[in-house]
Amino acid sequence: MTLRFLDVNILTNGMGGNKMIIEICVGSACHLKGSYNVINEFMDITKERKLEDKITIKAAFCLGNCTNGVSVRIDGGDVLSCSEDNVQEFFEANVFGRL
Ligand code: FES
After folding, report:
1. Which CATH architecture has domain 2-94?
2. CB 3.0-4.6 Å disulfide test: which of 12, 27, 45, 88 passes with 62?
């Protein structure tokens, strides 16, 4: 888990430029709901689809939506909800169409 989290930091090098910035909450409530697994799945999908040059994944602390976490924010927009079980569906609904 620690090594994977370091991967997040590698992906977050730089400020993102024109890349989509996806912030995933690692605050205590979201952590308990599996935010580290969500981050790993986001990273896996990003790598599988070869989207590293289009997406920056960042860990964020409480995004103020604790009851509906794991909280995810894209490009500073609304705080969305994701879970370990629907990361692929989340990407299809909220990410792929905006790239
Ligand atoms: S801990 Fe994730 S939104 Fe508050």
Report:
1. 3-Layer(aba) Sandwich (3.40)
2. 27
